[in-house]
Write a structure and sequence with these properties.
single chain, about 230 residues, alpha/beta, Alpha/beta knot, Trp Operon Repressor, Chain A, 2 domains, 8 helices
């Protein structure tokens, strides 16, 4: 999978993709993340990419021309399955969306900044708009990092244990069950005996029941959606 990220602050995204699972994914050649600064493509002086909005109002807006030039350059090099804009008024990102995007081959992600981007870019280039929550960030970079991490870890071969992602919270519409490790008894707090019984079927049943219980207690809306 290739992900091209358009951002005026590429340095903000260098660290998230150079460590842990995302670094492993790229080292294996399973994920390629490329950062592009629209300042390098603007026809305006001094790398200008933002301007005042028509009609007045507070805040600057990312201009259409630098973004269009960069997007069209990328699209001229390969076919993209999605052009995603990170925005607070987009569709709420969830595990289902992550699963769907993990099956794509090439994706462009546009990180908004300032007061947003010229609406004409959204109308003529963007195919998907994503929000990671009902709040506003200083820019779309951190949101883009969340999406890339959630999607990248689902690519086959990225995780050492291929079944690990299948049991994450939300994969089956439920929260993940509680997990335990050594020692079996810590400060008088024992691990549930069933986890030590050695019977995979009984353990799986226990985990499923615990997932249902935890979901009902913490996110009952997930059960109602079913």
């Amino acid at each position: 999978m290739r992900i091209d990220i358009i951002t005026v602050l590429p340095e903000l995204l260098e660290s998230p993709f150079n460590h842990s699972i995302m670094k492993r994914a790229q080292t294996k050649g399973l994920l390629n993340v490329h950062l592009h600064n629209p300042r390098d493509y603007t026809p305006y002086k001094q790398g200008q990419v933002d301007d005042y909005q028509f009609g007045g109002g507070a805040g600057m807006v990312m201009m259409a021309e630098p973004l269009a030039i960069l997007i069209e350059k990328l699209q001229g090099e390969r076919k993209y399955d999605e052009v995603i804009f990170m925005t607070p008024d987009g569709s709420l990102f969830d595990q289902k969306a992550a699963n769907t995007l993990s099956m794509r081959e090439n994706i462009i992600i546009i990180c908004g900044h300032y007061k947003g981007i010229d609406e004409r870019i959204r109308q003529h280039f963007v195919t998907m708009e994503i929000s990671i929550g009902d709040y506003v960030l200083s820019g779309g970079e951190l949101a883009a990092a969340v999406v890339v991490d959630a999607v990248g870890r689902l690519i086959p071969g990225v995780l050492n244990d291929e079944t690990s992602a299948l049991f994450d919270s939300f994969q089956d519409g439920l929260l993940a069950p509680p997990v335990y490790t050594r020692p079996a008894d810590f400060r008088g707090w024992p691990v549930p005996e069933i986890l030590l019984c050695g019977d995979p079927k009984k353990i799986d049943n226990w985990r499923h029941e615990e997932s249902l219980k935890r979901t009902a207690e913490r996110r009952p809306g997930l059960l109602k959606e079913d």
